[in-house]
């Protein structure tokens, strides 16, 4: 996978993860073009797009669009399932996730993504394992956090 | 995900207020989230982009002050980072914070470190110089006893890490492969995968450790190692054949559901692992029968198991099909895979349909019949509202282009081209069209000159200056070298000239520079074909272009080259004089040079003509590089006491020897002993230079410089020569083509002789789509066209299971031509009761509501001269879809379902029809209408699920049937009887 973008129906970017080195200018250009193209597509249309020499796989969940760029020989359908699995993970973590959860806790959304996809490849396919890793990190953090809060007070 | 509650942004402010009032005393956490919340809320409340910019700039300057203040605690810094990430996501520059992100990762506690690392991974890319500052932190964290810290370090390494610093962390990461925690091992494998991607040499020595990872007891670690293996096998599949067994075993276990249930995804066992394994097997089994045999079983099982109707099973099926077609073929598996593709293509789900088309596209070369099976679906997809589907269909058609369907396919491609605006698509598509037209023209798919030139014009106009430079080059080469038939070539060139003259006549149209260059070359080279006394007309046009400011100077060089060539044919021209006047004072030195060359050449007409011969662009110019023609002059001068010519090195040597008075070291003495000293006569020199022969560039340039820069680049002798040599080889290879066409003609003859009566059968509903189908899929799989294409594919006759064309025997030589065609304006699938239809025909009077004309032209080909009375339908055009029906000759009709010409005298028609179709239900032969020369009969056959209506038009006179008009009465007259 080359990159993943999350954006709202209004075209506002909510999350971006780039797995290939690109300059900021290119990233902005790509984001702008893709958001436009994807938003212009009708709901009954195919979830795949050919864009430059890449394949774009996108899916809409409520008001959010999840959009992945893959190479031509990659499997489009399984990429759709990657998106779905990510949504499942978010859902499980936030408990019925909505766009607001992602806006206000986008760093959490990034942490979850990093436990699921790493360097553009699927890192862990078991939902349980991903959530366990996140919880573990959260727990340790909480402990340390509480400790430091206590220390301050 | 239906259970997601959609909360709209309008609810935001209220929600935030709630948060604030409740969360005030709850501690630091709330205040942190509310600061980001405040920012988010502030932004959403704004209406204009301008206001947003102002707000964020202000926010950024606040942040800048905060992060650089020494009093800022790490916790505050963490909160600042989150806001910085947010600002950068909105597209604002937050680069001042990058260094603080690195600091945070270095100094913070776990919570802060995590955000610091995240910020680094989002802000920086792997070539960023600041990344070097992170290396120490990573090294420290990798050595930490805290698992979370190690995980964070491994995560950042797998995302971005400076290539040069890999050695600093590599031993630490290698150690982690033996770590007791599987999450650490897994992340270590992925970090090594990243290293393999950016610096494969650095991890070469640990390949053996990857094998350990592949055999890891934890599924996650094994799955992670598959990423590395996929890459490595992709680069060098032969090195990993020994692992095939292991991969097959793993896949068997996965498919058999031996993995923990955690790895199931919607009750499908570990689909990601399955797909990765299938891809690896596909790479391993490619062109390798022995390796492929190992995997047949497991592939079969995968295909069998994937039954569930869920997207993820289709994902696996798709990969399976891909693998089956990649490895050494096994017919049983191929058959199953083909069925799978059918499932995809016929699926109502658009995503699956797209993948079906994609699968067809790569399978088509191996199995062209598969496209025939799905031709109607493909036709539907061609007009699909989703452009992606359309494009994939075009891609598919591009792969099946042959001489018979080229016009339709190219037309469809051009249609798409005119609609698309994205440059990438245009370049790609133009390249494909040109590929079909120009690169394949060894056996010319193009049906005729006019079509060829017009299509190329469209390609040049649309593709413009973005297309690949090879396209115009190849096109001009094609024109210059031509095919086997000289008169045909001349006509093609003449047509090109005429077409360009017309194009240049149009006012206020700007053609792309590349197109103008092609035009100027063609006009300069082949204008003489027009046989006009003076090229004044074209010179005026070229002059106009030369004075046009929008024309680039490169194109102007081409234009003036054309003018120069034309001038050699013109006796005198005012325009040329004007042109010389204008450009000899041009500021562009290149143009000035060209203008002066032209001026001087004009003063010596003989030289000009020999220099710029007509139609010699393919011939080598003999150049006397040795300048031997000067021998006489040199001898004369010598005899008059002139000093002999000394080559450069000799002069230098002499210069040296003159200085020898003081120089005691023999610097360049090697020269004096060499044989060169003796070579002082001009003859000797010319001998010496003769060795380098005609390829000597210096001599070439002297004469060639007059042929102008623009041209020389492509067509100049030195650039052209090697290509020319290459071409002679091509020509010999191309020789079989005409032979084949002769064979084809012979076959043609045989067919005509043997089967003088071909009964036309007709599918019940001849929709345009079927016409389109027939014109698109014509030639696919039929022997003759396969030959024509030179494809080595095995011919399959599957598609002939239901032959629609029946050949009947008849000894009659006088035969009329019968052309069958039925057309229903409605496209519903209901069965039409044809009595009404026929009545309508008879009663049609003069009403012409649904007009339909059938033009049959007589083919005046040699093959038919022996059978003068046989009228051959060569070109049938349906007015409603003229281009869809351009196949000529009978074999063109073989695979088509829609139509076929038949030759049958009326008398024998009935009997032959009866003979052929007696097994089906049929009606009596009814004469529909007739006059003294022509009689039209109709005949119906019911077969399977279709109704054929055969109209036979018999010609009672001996005259040639030049054209036939068939008019069909209004559609209201048809009655549908279920």
CA-based shape of chain B: extended
Residue share in helices of chain B?
A: 55-70%
What is the 3D form of chain A? globular
Low-confidence stretches of chain B: 1-33, 669-766, 782-914, 968-978
What fold name stands as the CATH topology of chain A?
Answer: Beta-Lactamase
Q: What is the CATH level 1 assignment of chain A?
A: Alpha Beta
State which percent range the strand residues of chain B make up. 5-15%
User: What gyration radius of chain A follows from the Cα positions, in whole Å?
Assistant: 17 Å
Radius of gyration of chain B: 39 Å
In total, how many beta strands of chain A? 7
Assign a percent range to the helix content of chain A: 40-55%
Note the main sheet of chain A: 5 strands, antiparallel
Query: How many strand units of chain B?
Result: 13
Class inferred from helices and paired strands of chain A: alpha+beta
Structural domain tally of chain A: 1
The helix tally of chain A amounts to: 5
Protein architecture, described:
Chain B: It holds the Pfam family Adaptin_N. Chain B: Belongs to the adaptor complexes large subunit family. The complex is a heterodimer of chains A (153) and B (978). Chain A has one domain (3-151): Beta-Lactamase. Helices cover 52% and strands 23% of the residues of chain A. Chain A has 5 helices and 7 strands. Chain A has helices at residues 24-40, 76-94, 99-104, 106-116, 127-152, and strands spanning 3-8, 13-18, 48-51, 54-61, 64-70, 117-118, 121-122. In chain A, helix 4 packs across helix 5 (127-152). Chain B has a domain at 485-611. In chain B, the strands form 5 sheets. In chain B, strands 9, 10, 11 and 12 form a 4-stranded antiparallel beta sheet that branches. In chain B, strands 7-6-13 form a 3-stranded antiparallel beta sheet, with no helix packed on it. Chain B has a two-stranded antiparallel sheet with strand order 1-2. Chain B is extended. Residues 1-33, 669-766, 782-914 and 968-978 of chain B have low confidence and may be disordered.
């Amino acid at each position: 996978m080359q990159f993943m973008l999350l954006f709202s129906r209004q075209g506002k970017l909510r999350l971006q993860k780039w797995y290939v080195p690109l300059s900021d200018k290119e990233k902005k250009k790509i984001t702008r073009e893709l958001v436009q193209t994807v938003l212009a597509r009708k709901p009954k249309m195919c979830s795949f797009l050919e864009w430059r020499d890449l394949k774009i796989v996108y899916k809409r969940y409520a008001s959010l669009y999840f959009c992945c760029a893959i190479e031509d020989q990659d499997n489009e359908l399984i990429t759709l399932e990657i998106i779905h699995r990510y949504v499942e993970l978010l859902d499980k973590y936030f408990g019925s996730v909505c766009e607001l959860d992602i806006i206000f806790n986008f760093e959490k959304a990034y942490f979850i993504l990093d436990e699921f996809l790493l360097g553009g490849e699927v890192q862990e396919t078991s939902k349980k394992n991903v959530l366990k890793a996140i919880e573990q990190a959260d727990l340790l953090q909480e402990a340390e956090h509480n400790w430091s809060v206590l220390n301050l007070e | 995900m239906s259970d997601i509650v959609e909360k709209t942004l309008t609810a935001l402010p209220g929600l935030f207020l709630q948060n604030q009032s409740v969360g005030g005393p709850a501690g630091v956490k709330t205040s942190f989230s509310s600061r980001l919340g405040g920012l988010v809320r502030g932004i959403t409340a704004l209406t204009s982009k301008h206001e947003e910019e102002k707000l964020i700039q202000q926010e950024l300057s606040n942040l800048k002050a905060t992060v650089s203040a020494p009093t800022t605690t790490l916790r505050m810094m963490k909160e600042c980072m989150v806001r910085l990430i947010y600002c950068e996501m909105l597209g604002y520059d937050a680069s001042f914070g990058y260094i603080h992100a690195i600091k945070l990762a270095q100094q913070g506690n776990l919570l802060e470190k995590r955000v610091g690392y995240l910020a680094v991974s989002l802000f920086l890319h792997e070539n960023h110089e600041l990344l070097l500052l992170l290396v120490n932190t990573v090294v420290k964290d990798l050595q930490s006893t805290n698992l979370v810290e190690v995980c964070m370090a491994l995560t950042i390494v797998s995302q971005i890490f400076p290539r040069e610093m890999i050695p600093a962390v590599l031993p630490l990461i290698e150690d982690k492969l033996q770590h007791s925690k599987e999450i650490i091992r897994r992340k270590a494998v992925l970090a090594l995968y990243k290293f393999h991607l950016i610096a494969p040499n650095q991890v070469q020595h640990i390949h053996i450790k990857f094998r350990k990872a592949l055999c890891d007891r934890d599924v996650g670690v094994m799955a992670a190692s598959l990423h590395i293996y996929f890459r490595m096998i992709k680069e060098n599949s032969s090195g990993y054949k020994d692992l095939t067994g292991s991969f097959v075993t793993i896949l068997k276990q996965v498919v058999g559901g031996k993995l923990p249930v955690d790895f199931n995804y919607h009750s499908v066992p570990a689909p990601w692992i399955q797909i990765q394994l299938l891809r690896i097997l596909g790479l391993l089994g490619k062109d390798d029968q022995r390796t492929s045999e190992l995997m047949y079983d497991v592939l079969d099982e995968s295909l069998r198991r994937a039954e569930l109707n869920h997207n993820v099973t289709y994902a696996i099926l798709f990969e399976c099909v891909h693998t089956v077609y990649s490895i050494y073929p096994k017919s049983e598996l191929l058959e199953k895979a083909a069925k799978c593709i059918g499932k995809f293509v016929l699926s109502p789900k658009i995503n699956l349909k797209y993948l079906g088309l994609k699968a067809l596209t790569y399978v088509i070369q191996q199995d062209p019949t598969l496209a025939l099976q799905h031709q109607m679906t493909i036709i539907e997809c061609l007009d699909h509202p989703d452009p992606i589907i359309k494009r994939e269909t075009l891609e598919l058609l591009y792969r099946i282009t042959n001489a018979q369907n080229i016009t339709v396919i190219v037309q469809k491609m051009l249609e798409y081209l005119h609609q698309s605006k994205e440059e990438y698509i245009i370049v790609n598509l133009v390249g494909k069209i040109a590929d079909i037209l120009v690169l394949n023209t060894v056996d010319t798919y193009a049906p005729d000159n006019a079509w060829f030139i017009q299509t190329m014009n469209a390609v040049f106009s649309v593709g413009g200056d973005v297309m690949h430079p090879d396209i115009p080059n190849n096109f001009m080469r094609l024109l210059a070298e031509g095919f086997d038939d000289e008169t045909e070539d001349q006509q093609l060139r003449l047509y090109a000239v005429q077409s360009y003259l017309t194009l240049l006549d149009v006012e206020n149209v700007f053609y792309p520079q590349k197109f103008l260059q092609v035009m100027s070359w063609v006009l300069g080279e082949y204008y003489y074909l027009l046989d006009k006394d003076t090229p004044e007309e074209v010179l005026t046009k070229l002059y106009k272009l030369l004075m046009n400011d929008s024309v680039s100077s490169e194109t102007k060089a081409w234009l003036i080259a054309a003018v120069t060539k034309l001038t050699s044919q013109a006796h005198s021209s005012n325009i040329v004089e004007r042109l010389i006047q204008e450009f000899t004072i041009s500021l562009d030195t290149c143009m000035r040079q060209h203008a002066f060359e032209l001026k001087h050449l004009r003063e010596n007409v003989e030289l000009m003509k020999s220099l710029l011969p007509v139609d010699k662009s393919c011939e080598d110019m003999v150049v006397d590089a040795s300048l031997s023609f000067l021998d006489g002059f040199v001898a004369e001068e010598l005899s008059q006491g002139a000093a002999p010519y000394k080559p450069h090195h000799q002069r230098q040597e002499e210069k040296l020897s003159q200085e020898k008075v003081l120089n005691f070291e023999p610097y360049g003495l090697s020269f004096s002993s060499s044989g060169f000293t003796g070579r002082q006569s001009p003859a000797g020199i010319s001998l010496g230079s003769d060795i380098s022969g005609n390829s000597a560039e210096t001599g070439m340039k002297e004469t060639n410089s007059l042929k102008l820069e623009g041209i020389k680049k492509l067509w100049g002798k030195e650039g052209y020569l090697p290509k020319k040599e290459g071409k002679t080889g091509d020509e010999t290879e191309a020789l079989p083509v005409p032979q084949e066409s002769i064979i084809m003609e012979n076959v043609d003859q045989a067919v005509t002789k043997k089967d003088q009566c071909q009964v036309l059968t007709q599918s019940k509903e001849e929709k345009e789509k079927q016409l389109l189908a027939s014109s698109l899929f014509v030639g696919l799989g039929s022997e003759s066209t396969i030959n024509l294409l030179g494809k080595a594919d095995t011919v399959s006759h599957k598609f002939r299971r239901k032959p629609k064309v029946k050949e009947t025997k008849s000894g009659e030589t006088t035969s009329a031509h019968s052309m069958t065609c039925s057309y229903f304006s409605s496209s519903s699938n209901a069965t039409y009761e044809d009595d009404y239809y026929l009545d309508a025909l008879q009663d049609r009077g003069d009403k012409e509501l649904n007009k339909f004309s059938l033009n049959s032209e007589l083919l005046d080909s040699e093959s038919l001269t022996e059978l003068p009375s046989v009228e051959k339908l060569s070109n049938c055009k349906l007015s409603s879809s003229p281009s869809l029906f351009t196949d000529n000759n009978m074999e063109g009709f073989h695979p088509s379902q829609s139509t076929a010409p038949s030759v049958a005298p009326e008398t024998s028609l009935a009997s032959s029809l009866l003979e052929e179709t007696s097994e089906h239900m049929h009606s009596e032969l009814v004469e529909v209408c007739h006059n003294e020369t022509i009689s039209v009969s109709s005949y119906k056959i019911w077969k399977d699920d279709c109704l054929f209506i055969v109209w036979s038009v018999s010609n009672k006179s001996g005259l040639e049937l030049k054209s036939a008009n068939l008019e069909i009465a209004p559609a209201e007259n048809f009655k549908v009887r279920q």
